[in-house]
Amino acid sequence: MSNKEPLFSAKNLKLLSGPLNLNNPVTVQVLGVCSALAVTVQLKPAVVMAISVIVVTAFSNLVISLLRNTIPNRIRIIVQLVVIAALVILVDQILKAFVYDVSKQLSVFVGLIITNCILMGRLEAFAMANKPWQSFVDGIGNGLGYGAILVIVSFFRELLGSGTIWGYQIIEKTGLYDLGYSNNGMFILPPMALIIIGVIIWIQRSRKRELIEKS
Amino acid sequence: MNTNKNSYIFIYATVMIVIVAVMLSLASLLLKPKQDFNIDVEKKKNILSSINITAEAKEVPDLYKKHITAVYAVDANGKVMDGVDALNIKLKDELVKAPENRSYPVFEAINKEGEKLYIFPIQGKGLWGPIWGYVSFKEDLNTVYGAVFDHKGETPGLGAEIAQPDFQARFKDKTIFDETGNYTSIKITKPGTTAPTIHNVDGISGGTITSNGLGLMLKTGLENYIPFITTKKDSL
To answer: What ipTM was reported for this prediction?
Structure first.
């Protein structure tokens, strides 16, 4: 890097923390909602999905940023897609080889990371115009922002829908079933994920007034 | 350099594709053995759970070796076929062939108590996609010892319940032939409408089409094994 900026300068750290809050890809930019509904029934697949997305956003940002001055403008979207698709296929193959049961649960949604708007969005908006390290950090930040929402949503869905956390029977241990409590099947179905994301957006906006659009 | 020249774009795209293709083929080649192993373990795990043995992925190969005593294929007349790799028969592919050309896998097993069991794989359609399963029978080839079903994409909480152990447990001790020896299969009935008998099982409320598909899969799937069952019974 020409300007001797430290690797973790305040500006770079902001790239990491911004997407977790004020610039969250799911709750603020409302991107990647489809997969957030689909893979959040249980915590474990949600975490694996989050890690997969972090890896893909970080490395596709890095690769595109390294290539940014050579990419012909007319085919830049295709180049971006090829990079994303190649990385996603790699991740999918690795999941199938090493965490087969989780990859079965995620099924098509790993492949559908390719169509996740967060990725193309970051490549177009950030990696095409910034240096590799910043792009890499930005990718990790956005992946984390997406992953954080996934983890929150799946935590509530698994706890209230199946009475478990990470597959462990939590509600059974507390003895609530004996008092007449039963799991809410609604939480297993996608609409509840949408409602939970809605609640998260509501809480976030009531705390961060600047996010509310003036109309 | 002018990156908008047609020649540049062509060369750029070609080089990019070649690099990506080589990278992905390499990854696929290197990871294939591990992936195939996982698929194999998954299959054996299902077979084992149809005789009520639940196993962690790590224990599957050993438990499979211990409990599955024989694997062979039978033809449409129930005759055992020679030289067929029965474990790798794809039932889905067999079912689209003409009946006389099909081969059906049969697994012989012993459970922890030393009882001899027979396991038949079955394949059918649910609401959204394929469903499949393994049904194990006691030595009389009539009484169900255990059953396991799985699905590609049935609705969670509704049709997907067929993959739940408590649903599968309903099949235990049901029989597929009546007293006179006629084939009845195991019917999936609407919960609460029919008095429970040894030939029916309560379906899933809200999962009617999956339940119907499961009933049909059991009926046609096990029917294919009747010639084999008959010859086996005659020789007893």
So the answer is: 0.79
pLDDT at A41 over 70: yes
Give the alpha-carbon dihedral of B165, B170, B172, B176, to 10 degrees: -130
Alpha helix (H) ranges present in chain A? 10-17, 33-38, 43-67, 76-98, 100-106, 108-111, 117-125, 132-162, 171-174, 190-207
Question: Which chain A residue has the Cα nearest residue B150?
Answer: A104
Q: Are B131 and B217 in contact (CB under 8 A)?
A: yes
How deeply is B151 buried, as exposed, middle or buried, from its count of CB atoms within 10 A (0-12, 13-18, 19+)? buried
Instruction: Work out the number of other CB atoms within 10 angstroms of the CB of residue B152.
Output: 13
Answer for the pair B148, B230: CB distance below 8 angstroms, yes or no: no
At B184-231, the pLDDT tens digits run 889 888 877 777 788 888 888 888 899 999 999 999 999 999 999 988
Opening angle at CA A161, ends A106 and B188, nearest 5: 80
- Provide residues of A within 8 Å CB-CB of chain B: 41, 70-75, 78-79, 82, 86, 89-90, 93-94, 96-98, 100-101, 104, 107, 185, 188-189
Phi then psi for B7, rounded to 5 degrees? -65, -40
Name the closest residue on chain B to residue A75, using Cα atoms. B9
